[in-house]
Amino acid sequence: MDTDSNSGSRLAIFIENPPKALWSLAIPIMFGMGIHTLYNLVDMIFIGRLSGDAITSVAFNMPLFFLMLGLTMGLGTGVTASIARFIGEENKSSADNAAEHALVMGAIISLIFTSLGFAYGQDILRYLGAEGVILELSWDYLYVICAGLPFMVFSAFFRSILAGEGDMKFPMMVAALGTILNILLDPLFIFELDQFGGIGFGLGVKGAAIATVLSQATVFVIFVFMLYIKEHAYITFRLQYFSLSRSILWDIIKVGIPASLSMVIMAVGQGVFNRILIHYSSQTVAAYQVAGRLDMLIFLPIFAIAGAMTTLVGMFYGAKEIGQLRSIVKYGVSRVFIITIASSAFVYAFAPTFSGFFTNDIEIQDVAVGFLRLMTLVYPFVAIAIVSGRVMQGLGKGIPVLVITTIRVLGVSAPLALYFSFVLDVHRQHVEWNWYAMMISTSIAFVIAVSWVRMEMNKLNKLEESLV
């Protein structure tokens, strides 16, 4: 086994220098997410070359895709936090068992979502507002994606397990390989490539989905080979001896289920906004999708730092290193604020240029630019709220994130957007009122998140005093 996978020494190094530990974890995550973000941008550029309807058809899939990934990544967060705390407590057997629970959950999620997707996917797309050619294209995309869901689910859990032990480099390398493969396969399956002798399959939106499934299958095979055959990780898997542990299952789901429900709520919110925006035009839905891909540029480093914070907070909390925990929280929050200010200014300045990469449709470009230039004003608040939530998850507390997300999406954002669009019946050209709804909800969520973290830090201060 690679000595770099020795989480005992990794824990000692993390405690010795928390800021260095943060970047040692965050940079590989950032690099991997950067390549994935590049794929999302390139993928949307390819799809945008087909038509505006093609972009819109993918947009209608996003709530469903986000729902599945939300459940997987939410439970994955619970797995990461649980394994990190067990390693902090130097309890390897429980850490191994937590990883085995994750794979069992992955099998259950794969079976449920694949079955539901094939059986009811088209009806759900129709319910979300897709119709005509957009419904046809949306179903072409979703049908193929459903076939590859197990690969995506298991790969996500493998990454969560490795994150829990503080290994960010290996999953980053595997994810990067899969993303590069996806980018190479996209044009081959989407276009006919007449300029290259017609070697492409010309499958359009369906081709984009096939490229995604093939690349995710490759990632899955690599993870299985390295973790089961090569035993790369500190965590070991012995599924043949797996036994259900209620305490470990609860340790995972008390963080994972609220995190999953939070992402489900965000998926519902995205679906609601798609239905609202189709009231304006299909181009408006496409613009919302384009803008969503672009704001990944802003949150790329934020999610990387937030992911690192979950591991470090979990380990420090498990090891009762409260002083180091408190210092890394302050350090992480201050750094995400500075980074988001800079990246928001960059996106604000170049929003028209970025939007033009995806489509030549002027209406889509104008709406996307309007969204980005308003939302960048509150993105620093979003960044702090994201990190605050991951800190609380690292502490084993999942409810705060669920409460904050529920208030933001279902309590403020969606109701306000519905009110502005259908009660006040704002003019079709005034789609920005929907962005105002998002800005208001984001500001409220920021205040609640910061207040909640401060309360948790005060509790930790009292715990530290009791340990002295």
Number of strands: 0
The coarse silhouette is globular
- In round numbers, the mean pLDDT is 87
State the helical fraction: over 70%
Q: Pairing-aware structural class of the strands and helices?
A: mainly alpha
Overall number of domains: 1
N to C succession of SSEs: HHHHHHHHHHHHHHH
Number of helices: 15
Low-confidence stretches: 1-9
Distance between the termini: 38 Å
* Beta content: under 5%
Query: Rounded to an integer, what's the Rg over CA atoms?
Result: 22 Å
**Main β-sheet description:** none
Subcellular location: Cell membrane
Main location: membrane
Transmembrane segments: 21-42, 62-87, 99-121, 141-158, 170-191, 203-228, 248-273, 298-319, 331-351, 371-389, 401-421, 433-453
GO molecular function: antiporter activity; xenobiotic transmembrane transporter activity
Structure explained in plain terms:
The chain is mainly alpha-helical. The chain has one domain. It is 83% helix and 0% strand. The chain is built from 15 helices and no strands. It has helices at 7-16, 18-48, 52-88, 92-127, 132-164, 169-190, 205-229, 246-277, 282-294, 296-318, 322-358, 362-375, 379-394, 399-423, 432-467. Helix 3 runs parallel beside helix 5, helix 3 (52-88) runs antiparallel to helix 8 (246-277) and helix 8 (246-277) packs parallel to helix 14. The longest helix is centred in the N-terminal third of the chain and has 37 residues, at 52-88. The protein starts with 6 loop residues before the first helix and ends with a helix. Mean pLDDT is 87; it is low at 1-9.
